Request: fold
Amino acid sequence: MAYDKDVFVQIKSALGSFKFKNPFRQEKLSKLLSDLLPNIRFSTITATDGDFAGNVQIDGTLNVDGAITANGSTITLGDTAGDSVVFSADVDSNILPDDTATYTLGSAAKGWKSTFLAKTAADVALTVDADTIDATSDVIDIDLGVNSASVNAIDISADVKTALSAGEIVRSVNIDTNALAADADTSAVIGLDITASTVATSRADIKGVRVITDGAMSTADTVYGLEARINSDTTAGVEMAGVFVDSNSTLNNAAAEFHGVLVDVRDVINTSSNEITGFKVLLEDDGKGLVVDAATVDHAAGNLIEVNGEIKDVAAGAATGIDINMTETVAGTNGTSIYGSDVAVVGFATGRADLIGSRVVLSGSKTGGDSTVGFKLDADSLTLNNAAEDFIGIHVDASGLTNTNSDELVGVKIEVPATADSAIQANGLINSTKNVGVVGAGTVSAVETGDGRDFTTTLTLTNFVVGAVPGGAALAVGNIIYEFPAAGMHVVKACAANIGFTIVGTGQTPVYALGSVVGSGAVATLAGTATFFDYQAAQYTAADTAGTATKEGPFVATVGALAGIALNKTGDEKSLFLNSAETWAGDNAGDLTASGTITIHWTRMD
Reply:
């Protein structure tokens, strides 16, 4: 049969109205009627579409070849939990719930095996809007019963496929937790909370967070295993920390160890780096690099800070247990200090423990090396540019100590074995300013070495004015070069001199000596007054007045060593004068000066 135009058949019944296009051409009418007639009461059938005006119930299988459009307010698939919906086709639209935050995808008894999400550049693959979530509910709850040898609860792989521009950041996990209301005390806002635990007999390692960074970092600026940025602006007395470790563990094994922070860089392979540190702190003003508050540490607990360095081989340079570098970068204020190390040990009123500010223990057995030094001070690179600036290698200040019962007070105590050459090397004497005298007038400087009681004082004279010479007559002159401690007792053991004299005009060979009274009077010699030269047996004669220095000594007092002024009692004269006398020519009018050194070896007796 041939048709010049489309033919429609319409079937109407109480069950509904159906309209079919060209059913004869498709040779489906006979089959359609055989399938529908037993179950459908037709009201009308026309050569148009087939419409059902009422309900349609199909107790068998419905097969539809073509597109299906179901219009209605509610579409229900299945009427029992035993019914199933099978998708052989792809879903080509969004899936939206009718009510927000009402329905679940899966259940505790029936969960989805895997979820695969993909996103475009502008979309978010997974969004959870829990703006009004209840305080006791979890936004995402993962219950993982692990039976496999290796499994991840969440596996995130973020591959950066293109080069990042300046300022761009790729985050595998981005957590933004904001407190939008005034929270109660003891509450907390936590970005990430991880609990990792095992059973008592487990041998598995427990790691709350594990970060692995690898790959070739040929041009990277920084590689951080963990970065914490604290940008809060606080107006209350809060405690802020980049990393906070709070442990309530109980250690029940003698071999167990607990570390608040453990940094292991032993496997770092260094081919070019200029610095490898286990722990580094960068500070701004008023910052402290490390604070240890051990108010509740038991005495037997051990060390608050312990450094164990197993030095394998030092090929060059030095291995340092603690290296402290303090660099003043701007001009400081007078009266302030910069301490490389500051130790304060406070004893308890009834305590019996020894108080030791710093202790160095050297042990082991050495068969090579240059030296073993308990304490070394190296100031070779220090430059002092102020006349009032003092350099003190070791300064022991116990002037404020209150002694009520101690039988020994010692600033520095050195104990060496009987086989030692000396407690202090001859080229490393202790410089002491305790109980020393006063440097004399003019251009005199002093270097004093000793132990606080026994001293060697070396006076350096530079164009030192011994006295003014009017010229044309005999005259004795002198000037003070040193003054021993007032109201004290001391013994002058010996002196030595290496000085030269200078005066204008005719050359002279004046006599000179050390005395307890300044030289004076119209005399050409010092021999007439004993106190003009009582620190030596006889006066000496200068080589000339052109500055030629001559060595004299060592010499002792006029009446012999350990006698006379050398045995200086409390009320004796403490001044030491350099005196000189000569019959001066008329053109010698001017200052007689001396340059060189005078050395005094003496002992304080009180």
